[in-house]
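User: Predict the complex with alpha-methylisocitric acid.
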Amino acid sequence: MKQSLTQKILSAHLISHDTLPAPGTEIGLRIDQTLTQDATGTMAYLQFESMGLDTPKTKVSVSYVDHNMLQTGFENADDHQYLQSVAAKYGLFFSRPGNGICHQVHRERFAIPGDTLLGSDSHTPTAGGLGMIAIGAGGLDIAMALAGQPFWTGMPKVLGVKLTGKLQDWVTGKDVILEMLRRLTVKGGTGRIVEYYGEGAHSLSISDRFTICNMGAELGATTSLFPSDEKTKAFMKSQKRSEGWVEMKADDGATFDEEMEINLSELEPMIAQPHMPDAVVKVREIAGMPIAQACVGSCTNSSYHDLGISAYILKDKAIHPSVSFTLTPGSKQVFEMIARDSDMTLASLITSGARVLESACGPCIGMGQAPPSGAVSVRSFNRNFEGRSGTADAKVYLASPETTAASALKGVITDPRDTGIPYKFIGEMDEIIVNDDMLIAPIENRSEIAIIRGPNIKPLPSFTAMPENLHGKVLLKMADNITTDHIMPAGAKVLPLRSNIPAISEFTLVRVDPEFPARAREWGGGMIIAGDNYGQGSSREHAALAPRYLGVTAVVVKSFARIHLANLINFGILPATFLNPQDYASIAQGDELVIENAREQIADHPENITMLNKTKKLTYQITSPLTERQRHIILAGGTLAFAKQQAEKIEA
Ligand code: MIC
Ligand code: SF4
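Assistant: Here is the predicted structure with alpha-methylisocitric acid placed in the model:
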């Protein structure tokens, strides 16, 4: 049978079945590599530690530090020390602060075509640009993969995207993924792996491929990937990793579950408007809008190409007086290359007045560089959720580095084709300085290594099993597209508390309702109601862990985003959707809800659970998308509790 590339890699890693089952069936995959970043890593390793193993079972596992880098107090630095000592103790690679953003460094130094990667960050699919199946997940799933457990997920549909034609000058991979978002929306990729193929796919530069796969996360896709071809080979050669290259592609004539086509020749520069990555229009439709800030960087667009083209646009010119322009090299490697190349890229950026930041997530996650009140900020990033920039009423637009730099130059949103600057192709460098001094490799003899736990590292909370009856009030009712940035905000104030659940839980849902944590405490926990695509965005398991800590027992919505759904199950919160979506309208905050014989209902018929609204005297049917395995997890009170139960059974 002719296979897609996705099917080839999935079948080679399938543990749960002999052959790939129908879409939707739960599958277990063998994981070759894992990555964590500091904001999710501390929890992942606290959980890994609690499993009592001494070495990871994966081929390669890397712990990065890139999110929590402001260090305005001891918290960030405590986390870094903890992570470095855990990596040393258990034999993981440790990427030191300053080495770069996890997804940029991982593609440079570790990604391998045909392998699987699981990362505790939703943009892990970036590595798909190299022909790898790379999936984002919660920290606990990473801990389980480190322990040699399979990664469980629904068998995705494969969406084949045939790319034809060739990009015009000034049009980029970012414009391709923005077009995908315009067509499919932030829900369009749910339950799917997006596989790009065709002549157009091979014509795209390697950095364009990474950008497209990175922002496939915004489509809600499980992951995205490109074939591994001559350009992949050249990239790996430049990284001195030629031995890892293999050609990988779909068989000629392979069919996909779903198909679509994009003619690259017809694309123009695109831009996503506030506050969703799918609110996409052509740049020319809104050109002329004054801006106060422009930022090039983030794991989407901080490659050598992205900085090089920004420098070229700004060469010998000053940034517009009303604009603050920040620029982040995605890794130490990129930083060094712009400092040493023959175009004097870094020097011309400094001349133009760019504010060059250290290699980290920075403004993308609200760690500094908040824009002025009500201002427009154009960013080459991947997310523009309300308030994420650190300024509640800022208006963030997402575009290519080309559009971002052109706008910084002109002071207004500008199509790069309208600057009058002649086009110049800037690719990745063939000759790269490869220096892994900031990557600490695992050592053999680790028994004497002690783990360092500063005061910011708090023990994991433990949770009890699901009670017989679930009974509680509706703590909050929300609309569609609630993001994990709503549920558990990031930014300079909250991010440092990622390894301190009691402290961070005080920020749960405050973006939607500042009274939420107090109410949850006063009412002794309760339930959450929301609309479609609940929990889209980040992989942060704190968006499940903190509500659980505050006593949330069930989340009933119209539909879920994939990673958040898995995180809820991992922490023993019952996730469910309305069998009759109209029922959503009849529930209000404060209503008293009861699921009688919850344990029995979940064990016997999770697809049809009866829930009573005692306040309105109504009965609802809700459905929980639980597999057999997940039912046991929910009943036990979460994945860790379940794993413990299993271990006790084996001992007994
Ligand atoms: C993000 O972009 O939202 C983050 C911060 O990288 C998150 C992870 C986190 O919340 O720590 C992600 O995308 O998973
Ligand atoms: Fe970091 Fe932003 Fe990428 Fe998340 S999206 S990993 S915060 S750069």
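The radius of gyration is 24 Å.
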